Amino acid sequence: MKKYHLAIIGATGLVGETLLKVLIEENLLDNFEITMFGSEKSTGKIMIYAGKEYRINFLNEKINFKKFDLAFFLAGDEISKKWANYFSNAGAFVIDNSNAFRRENFVPLVVPEININLINEKTKIIANPNCSTIELVLALSCIKKVAKIKRVVVSTYQSVSGAGKEALFDLKNKTKLILEEGISNNLISYIGKKLDSGFCTEEDKIMFETSKILGEEINLCASTVRVPITNCHLESVFVEFEEDVLADEIKGAISGKNIFYSDEIVLPTDLASSNDTFVFRMRQFGKREIAFFVLADNLRRGASFNAVLIAKHLLNKNFFNEHVKN
Ligand SMILES: NC(=O)c1ccc[n+]([C@@H]2O[C@H](COP(=O)([O-])OP(=O)(O)OC[C@H]3O[C@@H](n4cnc5c(N)ncnc54)[C@H](OP(=O)(O)O)[C@@H]3O)[C@@H](O)[C@H]2O)c1
C-alpha cells in the first residue's frame, strides 16, 4: 500500500489524541507515514499508537515541508495562521481545526455529509467548522429538506473538553487557569471572548458558520454556555418555518449518515466513543415551530471525526496523487 506523509500539529492535545484513535478505528493508520508536532515542552516525548512509537517534534523553518501530502492543524488559531501556509504552499492539503481560515472566501468550511463537493484536487486549505456548529448544521440540513427555515434560536450546553486539556485540568482541580470564573460547580454564560456586539466569539462562530455551510443565509441567534461536564455538547434548538410543519414529518427527515432521531432522552454518558449526532425530544410548539435537542461528542464529531472524514475523501478521490506540488 502506498503511504502518504501526514503531519499532525497538536498531536498531544485532546483533539490530537482523539484523532489518532479515530484514524485507528477507521483503519486509516496504515495509509500514512506520520510526523507529530507539539509545543516546545512536548518535544522529544514519545507517543504510542497501535504499538508504534512516535516522537513529538517542534515546528521550525528547516522542516522539509515538501514531503507532506496532508497536515492536520489541531493547535489553535495562532499556530495555524503562522504555519499552515508553509505546508499548503509546499503542496500539502491542510485540514485546519482552528478558526484561522473559516471566514476566508477561498477556504471551504466542510461538514462532509453536507458539502464535501466543495473540495477538489486544487484545494489547499480546508476548514473544519466549530464543534457546536457541526452538530447543529447536521440537524438543520435534514430539517430544511422538509420546509424553509425562517428563524433558528439555539442555546448550547458545552462541555469543558471543548476548551482544551488545560480547561479539563481546571475542572478536575478546581483551578482557574483557562476558565477564569472557575468551572467547578459553575455555569459560564459566554464562551471565548466577549465582542462589542454583546455576543461572544463562540456565538458569533455558530451564527456565521451555519450560513456558510448550508449555503444560504440562516437567521440564527445563538447563546452559548460552558457547563461542568467533561465531554459532549448539548444544544437546545428552536426552529420557526416559513410554512406549516408537522414535527412527525421532520423527525422522519432526521436520518442519514451519522445522524439519528430519538423520542427518548440521550445522555452524554450514552455516547461513549460514538461519532454520531443525536437529535431527540422534538416538540411541536405552534403550527410553524418546533423545538428539539441535539447532542454529539465535541472531540469526535465536533473535531477529529469530521477531519478524518475529509481525509478519507481525499484518499478515496486519489487527490493526494493528483495534487499539484509547487
Ligand atoms: N476541544 C474541542 O472540542 C475542539 C473542537 C473543535 C475544534 N477544536 C480546535 O482544535 C484545536 C485543538 O484543540 P484541543 O482541544 O485539542 O486543545 P489542547 O488540548 O489545548 O491541545 C493543544 C495542542 O496544541 C499544541 N501546541 C501548542 N503550542 C504549539 C506549538 N507552538 N507548536 C505545535 N503545537 C503546539 C499542544 O502541544 P503541547 O501538548 O505540547 O502543549 C497540544 O498538542 C484548537 O484549534 C481548537 O479550537 C477543538
What does this structure look like?
The protein is an alpha/beta fold and about 325 residues long. The protein folds into two domains: about 5-130 and about 305-320, NAD(P)-binding Rossmann-like Domain (Rossmann fold, 3-Layer(aba) Sandwich); about 130-295, 2-Layer Sandwich (Dihydrodipicolinate Reductase, domain 2), CATH 3.30.360.10. It contains nine helices and 13 strands. The chain has a seven-stranded mixed β-sheet, with helices on both faces. It has a six-stranded mixed β-sheet with strand order 9-8-10-13-12-11. β12 (about 275-285) and β13 form a beta hairpin. α1 crosses α8 (about 300-315), α4 (about 130-145) runs parallel beside α6 (about 200-215) and α4 crosses α8 (about 300-315). The mean pLDDT is about 95. It binds NADP nicotinamide-adenine-dinucleotide phosphate. NADP nicotinamide-adenine-dinucleotide phosphate binds near residues 10 and 131. NADP nicotinamide-adenine-dinucleotide phosphate (NAP) binds near residues 37, 39 and 76.
